[in-house]
Amino acid sequence: MSTITLTTDFGLADWYVGAMKGVIRARAPAAQAIDLTHQVAPGNIRQGALALRCAYAYFPEGTVHVAVVDPGVGGPRPPLAARSRRFGFVGPDNGVLALALAAEGECAVRRIENPALILPKVGNTFHGRDVFAPVAAALAAGLDFAEVGPEAADWTRLPWPEPRRWAWGWAGEVVHVDRFGNALTNLPSRLIEGFAPAQVRVRLPRGRTCPVGSCYAAVAPGRAVAVPGSSGFLEVAVRDGQAAPSLGLRAGAPVRLAIGPAR
Amino acid sequence: MSTITLTTDFGLADWYVGAMKGVIRARAPAAQAIDLTHQVAPGNIRQGALALRCAYAYFPEGTVHVAVVDPGVGGPRPPLAARSRRFGFVGPDNGVLALALAAEGECAVRRIENPALILPKVGNTFHGRDVFAPVAAALAAGLDFAEVGPEAADWTRLPWPEPRRWAWGWAGEVVHVDRFGNALTNLPSRLIEGFAPAQVRVRLPRGRTCPVGSCYAAVAPGRAVAVPGSSGFLEVAVRDGQAAPSLGLRAGAPVRLAIGPAR
Amino acid sequence: MSTITLTTDFGLADWYVGAMKGVIRARAPAAQAIDLTHQVAPGNIRQGALALRCAYAYFPEGTVHVAVVDPGVGGPRPPLAARSRRFGFVGPDNGVLALALAAEGECAVRRIENPALILPKVGNTFHGRDVFAPVAAALAAGLDFAEVGPEAADWTRLPWPEPRRWAWGWAGEVVHVDRFGNALTNLPSRLIEGFAPAQVRVRLPRGRTCPVGSCYAAVAPGRAVAVPGSSGFLEVAVRDGQAAPSLGLRAGAPVRLAIGPAR
Questions:
Q1: DSSP letter at A61?
Q2: From the DSSP assignment, how many helices (H) and strands (E) are in chain A?
Q3: What average pLDDT does the segment A154-168 reach?
Q4: Chain-centre distance of CA B3, in angstroms?
Q5: Mean pLDDT computed over C11-32
Q6: Which pTM does this prediction carry?
Q7: What is the average pLDDT across C57-82?
């Protein structure tokens, strides 16, 4: 009944995810492997970290989350396993686990060094199959966490772009563009709590602005609106359209939340 | 052992489907979530409805089918749950369930209004995760259907383009183009029963025609043929090729089945 | 607890894979269906055969592997089921199973002819759903293999391009390009065993060469390197880049392993 989630940049065209699931199935037959996404842009650690951060907490306690966005595979970065009060995490020490671990708070982190847990012949190109999948399977099957390897003295954090307070409001940025062209920002939705809609406005690149609304339908089709999104942050959308391409929004683009008297 | 299927326009690049599966896994640990497709074009209700219609009946009795193509999320459209003799259905009241419900015949339909069934904080952008996944999980775990909410006085149908009878045969249209470039039509395969192949012919846009055959290999490579497809309708294919782009076929394109004396 | 893997060219945009999983779920409720890939290029038998070959052995004993890349569906090619000491295999007799069967060694191969195992109305376009899924489900549920149908007197092999020995080393070719743009070759990694890195060099099209390294990080970012890949063959990569498009590598492109005195 245990659960293992998979977040990678392997895509779905090759057999790589399938091979990982084979290893999991062989070593933890009672575990269920569930995909978060495998379409992280190749090598984009931050994008993988964000996907994991936004989805991991919806899984049942005891779930082991595996994230493999690993451009340095075979190099010096160590493989890690971590444990919070509720979840397990497995992945390379390059930041891909960092946003989830930061959200979990207190975590024990160990380097994967126990050769009995990994495949007999570990290559230098596919630790997802050879290292991370078998360790996740072992943890899901009940392995004592301390068996993984020694405590990690340190591990790689991933800086999260905190919005900055200004006299006129908050300066933030786009952190992700989704399939619908919606631009997720780093501006927490709670920043607009207590203000009337007419008191807040979102300033986008190229001098554009949009109102804040409670849902996409708060504006006419084709118009932009910032809504409290499903991950706790404001997201910029165009009703029945694609906000990001039409408004020049991509990861890192500045987005400002202006708060003032009703206009 | 219960089963939940998922049909959405969420794509696989973001973590949205993963988050839905997390909610299902947490609330119905014994259920299996199976993807029908997540690559419905964003907001294309008809395409989602067709995918569900063509696949749902192959699942075991008791399966709960979730369809979320929901451009009006957060707006006034109510969330629905339905039950036929064999299956459960969950999704927004915008037509995405309609073709499957019509195929099932007699169905009980209720509005989802029981707050105990859904996530504590429901936003206005992601009812797949916050409303539909937990309700599907509850139904799969054995919830009494009447607990979902009050009976729906009415719900949104989706008109199906019925082919029209003419003296020369039947006028139909393309309803879907698949990955192989095959163009599925609304012309039931039974329309050609009892006729010899030489008596029937399919007329395509731009003045082209193709024969009807029993399988793709009925014509030479590169040639077009209409075959009885896997969903009960004639489909236009090009052997070892892509019919839709080469023949100008897309959803809505007219396709005529001419029936006459052998030529 | 049994396992069925699926390898097809159906893609994920249509409901075809979902329908196969419905049939499996209905007929083998205790089996788990796991995707290897569904994004084999339409009709590319060799690509499907390679994916199956590279992933199948990571699954637990008793797994039934289904591969459906079947441009001749509905034509004369028979449907096959095979059994090795460890695994079951199901698919059309066109070579898509051949590389895995060759790797397994001794196999029993039968033609699927038992009408009790397949769907009541089998069409000519979707044997994945109508024939292969139900037979795989039956085998996973414990069907006696001999019940499938008569022994196949012969079945279609798929020639594997063996590298050729020359005075200067080995002449091979690219067999697959993956999502990262890495070019997998048919040159077994063991060919470089016993040689110092300075003694071996890989010659690519257009007069280019690259060194052999133990991992991607063996070269500077942007530089090409041949590394022992995860499937037992040398693969050509560009560190933090896409080797195949930048180096003109695609399936069939010549790749030569030059072995000589240290330079």
A1: T
A2: 6, 14
A3: 95
A4: 18
A5: 98
A6: 0.96
A7: 96
ipTM of this complex prediction, to 2 decimal places: 0.96
Touching partners of B (3+ C-beta pairs < 8 Å)? A, C
Chain B residue with the nearest C-alpha to that of A62: B26
How many B-C residue pairs are in contact by the CB < 8 A criterion?
Answer: 104
> What is the model's pLDDT at position B261?
75
Longest dimension (CA), chain A: 68
CA distance C40 to B164: 38
- Residue C87 contacts B where some CB pair is shorter than 8 Å: no
Write the Ramachandran bin of B11: left for phi over 0, alpha for psi from -120 to 50, otherwise beta. Answer: left
Asked if the model's pLDDT at residue A260 lies above 90, the reply is no
> Which amino acid appears at position C37 of this protein?
T
pLDDT for residue B263: 54
Min CA distance, C45 vs chain B (Å)?
12
Both structure tokens of A226 = 């910032």
> Is C34 near chain B, with CB under 8 Å?
no
Residue B81 tokens read as 């749950």
Q: How far is CA A93 from CA A70, A129, A179, C25, C214, in A?
A: 9, 16, 28, 38, 20
pLDDT tens per residue across span A176-216: 999 999 999 999 999 999 999 889 999 999 999 999 999 99
Can you tell me the distance from the alpha carbon of A204 to that of A255, in angstroms, rounded to the nearest whole number? Answer: 5
Amino acid making up residue C36: L
User: Can you say whether residue A62 is alpha, beta or left, with left for phi > 0 and alpha for psi between -120 and 50 degrees?
Assistant: left
Please write the tens of the pLDDT for every residue from C185-216: 999 999 999 999 889 999 999 999 999 999 99
Q: Are C259 and C195 in contact (CB under 8 A)?
A: yes
CA angle, residues A97, A99, A105, in degrees to nearest 5: 100
> How far is A190 from A195, CA to CA, in rounded Å?
10
Give strand pairing partners of C109.
Answer: C82
Start-to-end Cα distance in chain C: 55
